[in-house]
Amino acid sequence: MAASTAVSGVSDGALSPLGRRLGALLSSERVVRDLRQYFGLGVPPGGMPFTGSRFEQLAGGGDRPEVADRITAEDLVAVQTLSVTVPAPVALDILEGPLGVRLSGLLQAIPRDIDMADADALIVADGSPADQAWHLLCAQYGVNWVIAGKILARKRPRLLPIYDRVVRCAVGRPPSFWLAFHAALREDGAALHRQLLELRQAAGLPETVSALRVCDVAVWMNHRALGHPCP
Q1: Contact, 14 vs 187, CB < 8 A?
Q2: Distance between CA 76 and CA 130 in Å, rounded?
Q3: Of 101, 114, 161, 173, which residue is the least packed, with the fewest Cβ within 10 Å?
Q4: Do 182 and 201 contact (CB within 8 A), yes or no?
Q5: How many CB atoms lie within 10 A of CB 27?
């Protein structure tokens, strides 16, 4: 299936600026090829997938039931596949200290078995447990908004998207990316969410790769190919 024909019935006039931007990026002729390359599908002998291809599924995933409500050492390794590192003192506090206890309490209040497109906006709104967990992580020395977001995306891959400097450079800076992305996924009959699922199928990716990760990888690969500098 060609990337440009992966979606039908999407009305640009019904989409928000973020929805239109993402729709255009995801309709690139190269998107399926980019996804396959990133996840190491059909690479030539000796070729390697990107390390980030293991982010969601390393050690069975960060949202598997037995670890879904606590951040593990495996999660901290997983975020390293996306080129960020949690400072050692913070990592120890997460694994063995009160910070980990506080984060676990917040994770318990964040659903793990729902896609962002199907979730109520309150789940990702300002002041929600997810938002509180993000702010708590950002308050730690050496943990910025990118690291915090990637930790939470590891724990709730279907619900919380990755938003880093490359994605920000590609799609802009809405006041709340979570809320803007949530709205974009749901508008026009959830056309963007369907587009992501269809791209996942077209690229031959397993269903264990979340729709949000398909979006992140597609945007990242496209922006990387264009060679734009991202401050």
Answers
A1: yes
A2: 18
A3: 173
A4: no
A5: 18
The number of CA neighbours under 13 Å toward the Cβ of 143 is 26
Q: Contact at 8 Å (CB) between 166 and 224?
A: yes
Phi, psi of 55 (to 5 degrees): -55, -50
Q: Say what the pTM is.
A: 0.91
- Give the pair of three-digit tokens for residue 33: 């090829």
Q: Residue 189 has which token pair?
A: 């009959």
The string of pLDDT tens digits covering residues 143-178 is 999 999 999 999 999 999 999 999 999 999 999 999
**C-alpha to C-alpha distance for 157 and 113, rounded to whole angstroms:** 9
Whether residue 2 contacts residue 29, with contact meaning beta carbons closer than 8 Å, is answered with yes
Question: Which of 213, 199, 218, 220 is CA-nearest to residue 5?
Answer: 199
Taking residue 60's Cβ as centre, other Cβ atoms within 10 Å add up to 11
d(CA 9, CA 186): 14
Strand, helix or coil for residue 139: coil
> What is the biggest distance separating any 2 CA atoms in the chain, rounded to whole angstroms?
51
3-state secondary structure of 115: coil
In whole angstroms, give the CA distance from residue 138 to residue 119: 24
Distance (Å, rounded) from C-alpha 154 to C-alpha 22? Answer: 22
